[in-house]
Amino acid sequence: MSDAAERKAQWRRVLSVRLKSRRNPAVRYSVAVMGTNGRGMDHIQSYLAQPNVEIACISDVDSRAINKGIAAVVKQQANKPRGMNDFREVLEDKSLDVLSIAAPSHWHAPAAILACPAGNTFTWRNPAVTIRTKAN
């Protein structure tokens, strides 16, 4: 198995355990995915594989990436997610349960820091840095 395939399988296992461990399986989780030009597409596929998850929002600074993410979601989900260029608008939406951070590494920590006071649950992969050069 390639390194990328192994990381993808590992991410799906972690996500599956986290969401399936919830006490009420009837609850549906509303998810926003931030950053869909690369790893975010894996996040989208992982969330779509969960029966109690709906991707409600795709956020990216690149409108082409937003459109690519939305297109991937509507192939497997009935409701079309909203597209937002500024993830801070996502944090203001109280209907969202989860912010999945898949943006470039130097955005992980700032997005998580902003998500905390907004009351969002968030997920991201390492690294949690604020300076791009420290991410490698």
Write a structural description.
- The model has no long low-confidence stretch (mean pLDDT 77).
- Helices cover 42% and strands 18% of the residues.
- Helix 2 links the parallel strand 1 (29-34) and strand 2.
- The chain is of the alpha/beta class and 136 residues long.
- Helix 1 packs across helix 2.
- The chain has one domain: Rossmann fold (3-Layer(aba) Sandwich), CATH 3.40.50.
Task: List the SSEs and their pairings.
Elements (H helix, E strand, L loop, with lengths): L2 H18 L8 E6 L4 H10 L4 E7 L3 H12 L7 E3 L2 H6 L5 E4 L6 H11 L2 E4 L12
Parallel strand pairs: 1-2, 1-4, 2-3, 4-5
Helix pairs in contact: 1-2
Biggest beta sheet summary = 5 strands, parallel
Low-confidence stretches: none
Radius of gyration, in Å, reads: 14 Å
CATH architecture: 3-Layer(aba) Sandwich
Short description, anyone?
With 136 residues, this protein is of the alpha/beta class. The chain has helices at 3-20, 39-48, 63-74, 87-92, 108-118, and strands spanning 29-34, 53-59, 82-84, 98-101, 121-124.
Sum up the structure in keywords.
136 residues; alpha/beta; Rossmann fold; five-stranded parallel beta sheet; 18% strand
